[in-house]
């Protein structure tokens, strides 16, 4: 089913846009009228995606592990389209591995990209919206159902996503009077480049069979709620988390 929402006048910055959910977010927002600044480290992939989308897309090289890179990314997005009034903090890594076998470095990197990077991305966007007098700002942060359920082998990842949900709620309250709505989407398991190899294994197949519908979600399952949260229709929604998991957490 195709979802249609008018996002004309929305200048969106999307992190982690070079593949997976991020690239779909870029396509779906642009198809509904938004200008999209596609942010990620892999500039070649971003340029190919921007070319595919058309003139309302721009490829922005940025690494959310670096605040300087985030600031530079916003500067580039503003040069392309003007003030960013819509942010999708999507960049993330899985940090998979049993807790007793995961290195300190890997734990730190997972928390840095998934949590600190998301907070810095949202913060920089909010600072610029407030400075520009934007009163209809939208920030959507991508969390996960692992934020709410025990996830062996994903300790750092699940902790980072739980942090994203609580950070978003706190920022939503902090920026409410500035007119900035901050919400999270907590997807279930969707086959993307980040987990494709796992779901090809016997253990991954067993996990799928344990889900109530015995399937992975399709990427299109996030389209409607994402478009709603980026639109004017979500004016009265802030500090909310949308669990979209096809019943996987039941």
TrEMBL record:
Protein name: SDR family NAD(P)-dependent oxidoreductase
CDD domains, A to Z: SDR_c
Species of provenance: Erythrobacter crassostreae
Pfam families: adh_short (PF00106)
UniProt keyword Oxidoreductase present: yes
Molecular function per GO: oxidoreductase activity, acting on the CH-OH group of donors, NAD or NADP as acceptor; quinone binding
Alphabetical keyword list: Oxidoreductase
GO annotation, biological process: fatty acid biosynthetic process
Xref: InterPro entries: SDR_fam
Family: Belongs to the short-chain dehydrogenases/reductases (SDR) family.
């Amino acid at each position: 089913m195709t979802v249609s929402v008018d996002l004309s006048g929305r200048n969106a910055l999307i992190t982690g846009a070079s593949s997976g959910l991020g690239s779909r977010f870029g396509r779906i927002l642009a198809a509904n009228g938004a200008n999209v600044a596609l942010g990620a480290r892999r500039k070649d992939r971003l340029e190919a995606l921007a070319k595919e989308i058309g003139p309302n897309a721009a490829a922005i090289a940025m690494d959310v592990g670096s605040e300087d890179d985030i600031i530079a990314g916003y500067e580039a997005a503003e040069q392309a389209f003007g003030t960013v009034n819509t942010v999708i903090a999507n960049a993330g890594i899985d940090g998979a591995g049993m807790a007793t076998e995961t290195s300190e470095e890997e734990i730190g990197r997972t928390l840095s990209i998934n949590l600190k990077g998301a907070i810095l991305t949202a913060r920089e966007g909010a600072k610029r919206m407030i400075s520009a007098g934007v009163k209809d700002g939208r920030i959507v942060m991508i969390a996960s159902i692992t934020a709410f359920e025990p996830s062996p082998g994903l300790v750092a990842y699940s902790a980072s996503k739980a942090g994203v949900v609580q950070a978003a709620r706190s920022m939503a309250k902090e920026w409410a009077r500035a007119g900035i709505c901050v919400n999270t989407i907590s997807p279930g398991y969707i086959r993307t480049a980040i987990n494709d190899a796992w779901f090809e294994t016997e253990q991954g197949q067993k996990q799928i069979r344990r889900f109530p519908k015995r399937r992975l979600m399709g990427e299109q399952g996030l389209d409607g709620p994402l478009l709603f949260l980026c639109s004017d229709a979500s004016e009265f929604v802030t500090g909310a988390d949308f669990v979209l998991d096809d019943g996987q957490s039941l």
